Amino acid sequence: MLVKIPAAALYGIYAYPVKVEVSLSPGLGYAIVGLPDNAVKESRERVEAAIKNSGFSFPRGKIVINLSPADLRKEGTAYDLPIAIGILAASGQIERQSWDDTLIMGELSLDGSLMPIRGALSIAIVARKQALRLVLLPPANAGEAGVVKDIQVYAPATLREAVAFLSGQITLQPIFVDARALFQQQQSVFAVDMSDVKGQAQAKRALEIAAAGGHNILMIGPPGAGKTMLAQRLPTILPSLTLEEALETTRIHSVAGLLREHMGILTARPFRAPHHTISDVALVGGGNYPMPGEISLAHNGVLFLDELPEFKRQVLEVLRQPLEEGKIVIARARFRVEYPARFMLVAAMNPCPCGYYTHPTRPCTCNPGAIQRYSARISGPLFDRIDIHISVAPVEAQAFAEKGGESSQAIRARVQKAREIQQKRFGDLTIYTNAQMPSRMVEEFCRLDEQSRRLLENAMHRLQLSGRAYDRTLKVARTIADLEGSETIRAEHLSEALTYRTLDRATWGL
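^ thats the sequence. predicted structure below, dont judge the formating
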């Protein structure tokens, strides 16, 4: 007997339709074909034990399982449940007229319990695209998949319960999650606030500009100046995620297996802070079965690289393409996977190996050559892709006794207003912030008057700005103008933007 059960295969953050075909015939043997990985091949022992421990019999005969289409890689343990259901149906232990409207995925424990899987949201989306009516998933993934409309998600706890439901012996309540209501209820309340930071008015201003325009930012200063503290509070002044951004971000984290059990969708912008010992594969993604890296997990959020020169040179260089294109493409001999990676890069570093080159009271013990070699660990092209360079000086003692400055809520209101101006400017284009403008749009939206043009030309010559730095300076100036509600870029906006190109100067300029 032959049974065909709809399932899905993950490929990047997307899912593709798969059919689990189970054939039971006289003879001996058990085979799984259709380009399965080792986890799928090992499913026999799990499936057999789960079937027996759930009170069913494992059929005798020749069992052939084909995962169609055969040229698409099948990975992971999520095929346990459709394989088990297919075996039981092929052996007559489940009576059901048709399987064409039901997508089934789930990992089986040896006692028949259903375990969580990766990519449930993407699986539910492909089920809707295939016009499938029912989706069976483990209970831990039901909230995630339940946000998808026009399908009915059911979450049996065990194989026995799944069989009883499919046979019509019991009824289960479909899981439906009102994504918009859930999103509004779970809007993040942060444990930190920008008002916690004492002093650092210039650094706060730079972070506000970065948040308003989606610009990358580098903070340079001695140890203890507050660089990490400032970076950790950047998400508190960023606009809230839109529902579309939240769903896209949730898909990435679901595929990576990072969503908590019974969680619906992510409502806070990601903040990823990998250690400087990270490998290039862990940062951008990859491996034998390519998984999203830190830059994709930071999609629609912030990637914070502390102690930037301590990262390996090759690790930093792989950031160059994602910073420009907002995505990362992982190519292998037989397949190609693309992950989104549109994030704000926030980096922090000391000005020299000992850290005290710019300290007002503590002397630096580094010689000029050591300082130069330290800064040279980061390539010029990478510096070019960082829009804002800001010096963070130590806070004076009397500042700690003062009350905190503006709250994150007050700053976020200005940032949100500037973002709304940008959304109106770009309309229906797939551009959300000034930082994402291509060169042709820079020419259109960042026009300068004669005074500003001469100012920028002089700066180009004096600071030896590259063409990329020229464009990025104009984008920052456009953001400063948006924060002030100005339709045009004035000389004072451009002057402030030029002060944020510290590392384009002949010296550190600190």
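Residues 505-510 have pLDDT under 50 and may be disordered.
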